[in-house]
Amino acid sequence: MKKEHLQSGRKSQKQETRKKILFATQQLLEMGREPTMEDIAEKAGISRATIYRYYTNVDAISTELLLQLNVPDPTVLMEQYKNSSLLEAMLGFQKAYLKFALDNEKTSRKFLAAVLSSSNPKLQRGQNRISAIGAYFDSNTIALDTKTKNKLKNISVVLMGIESIIATKDVCDLTTAESIETLEWGLEMIIKGCQKE
């Protein structure tokens, strides 16, 4: 969102307009539409010019929308799985992140597209996942060498996000249930394989 516009004038009215824009975008995405700025303006009941004062394009709106959603909290995950085995914890983390990505699939896809086309180094995907997994690994005794731990952290992130859902659903043509089952199986086999070494 354009900060300079939000910081000038009547803040509460501008915050309300911003909420209308985000809510309209979310509704259109949930209806399975690829919204344009015009679609969003119509759904929000405001002019297209007004939307452009807040956002430069639909990807910018989608990016902010995803950041407003209820992303799994690493602290909550850490507390929930603090006494669990590595396998139980990683499958629990995976379940939480896959649920989030699937519950917000259209918005997550738009966010991914925005990140891939952005030159902003601060806009990164997967930071929540890698931070949560890193914190778990750092706070637990895991009987793996450092190199294996690092590779396991990275592959775990790959198997927990919208990227893996796109691969299983779009490339492999799996259903949502088959995607979840396959990704869980993959992570389980990798962890068990690491623990056998």
UniProtKB/TrEMBL annotation:
Pfam families: TetR_N (PF00440)
Keyword vocabulary terms for this entry: DNA-binding
InterPro entries the UniProt entry points to: Homeodomain-like_sf, HTH_TetR
Full protein name: Transcriptional regulator, TetR family
Domain (HTH tetR-type): residue spans on this chain: 15-73
DNA-binding keyword on record: yes
DNA-binding region as annotated in the record: 36-55
